[in-house]
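Re-run with default settings, no changes from the original entry. Doing this only to confirm the output is reproducible before filing.
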Amino acid sequence: MDFMDEDLDEDETMEDSDSDYEPILNSILFHDRDGFRGSSATTRRHYILLVLQNLVGSGLIEYEGEGCIRKLPKIQGKQTTDKLIKNDIYQSVLQASGHRSTANQPWSLVKMMSDRQHQNSWTASQKCKVNNVFLPNGKERTAMRYDSKVFCGQFTPDGKHFVTACQEGEIRVYDATTSAYNHVNTLMGRDVEWSILDLDFTPDGREFVYATRSSCLHVGDLLGRSAEIVCIPFDECSIHKFASYSVQFANGGREIIAGCSDGAVSVYDREESVWTERAFEDNMEVNAVRLLEDNSHIVCAGSDDGTVRIYDRRSMAMKTRGSVGMFVGHLDGVTSIDVKNDGRYFITNSKDQTIKLWDVRVMSKESQIQEFAAGKRDAFRDWDYRWNNVPPSYYKVNDLAGDTSVMTYRGHRVMKSLIKAKFSPASMTGQRYIYTGCGTGYLVMYDVLTGEMIQALRGHNNIVRDVAWHPQRSEILTSSWDCNVNLYTYGWPETKKKAPPSTGVTLRRSLRIANRNRHRSDSS
């Protein structure tokens, strides 16, 4: 495809070290300078980078980096759709998006409009089929400009408001009933030590909750005041630099589910003002949590080890290992989860540079978990997506033993932050597409049924961390670390300008030569 640029050269990443960093740093900076003069500049740089990486990894300092890679990666190999076609989701998405099971059947938009004139109203799938012809295909404008990195940008469930959260802690609310996106309210978040990392809203769209790197969650009214934001402290924080990375309202807004850096999936009862459930798994950071569908008892939790665990809240016990199943297939940490909201399917975005589609009915068996773990140990490379180059092996299409995912989508980059990937709206598109932010500044869209990248729209100069598709309009808003929120809509393809008609006279740059030739022609 035209937008698939060749990958940049991938340097070898630095191997980790078990040495004590503090003595090394002291030796470099303060002691034995004469003895250290004999060491090469490469060795000194190696030690300093190890120290800095250890400090960033421990949370003692933050690394932001400068700029971003500007090219999409080159994928080696072709993804097969065999498992996808055999799964129920293939036919359900095909029908929901207005396509019949038999391929290559012609359809006419003119005929559909003619039928509608005769009072034959369109079905929901026919509306989706028409909408899918006019997908957002270009940046219309920069809708919001800030002085700080934008981490979150989401629509409320009813689509009436669009809400952003920036690194400086401000939460801004916009009127989304029209494409003007007029500013409505601004609130200053509390206890924002690094940035607001995730947002969610009650079903009525009136209240919000946000997660950040602090020992509290925070709840407020979108149209209220900053002073009215309520702090909900966690009962206990077992690690230094505690954080909640993902948050969601549950049970009609009466409960809150959070994924935490200490490996816990926690549930808070707002009516009783108490944490009712807190299940741990191997002390691995939980980057993403989502209910399998609205008001479901099933919780999907994605961890930094690449696994997705399933919890049934009816069996979760306080401070125990409460997962009822696991999915393996990612070689690296999960950055986001989105659900199809049908009680069966969900997608995960990952640091291994892939999005995977899962069927909750096909959990990984113990033998598959062990088989995948063995292969993962052989393929795993020590790297950190915040500063290292992506391992080239992540861009190769491989059949991983034990991988129970239904489909894998490749072509975007996941770098520096927990980038979000989502299903397109059911009412607009029949959830035919997956759209995601990208470390290159692109908005990337995949066809669920083919795995192909159908759009890669450049509009930002830094990573696109969050994406939001309006539930009733063909509009996508992207939130980026370049401090902007961009609006993408459908625009008619530009027609090429036709060359002026030929006059039969060759134009000359020199008037003297043209006059001489004309004189010779007259003489003859």
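The two ends are 57 Å apart (CA to CA). Residues 4-22, 27-36, 502-508 have pLDDT under 50 and may be disordered.
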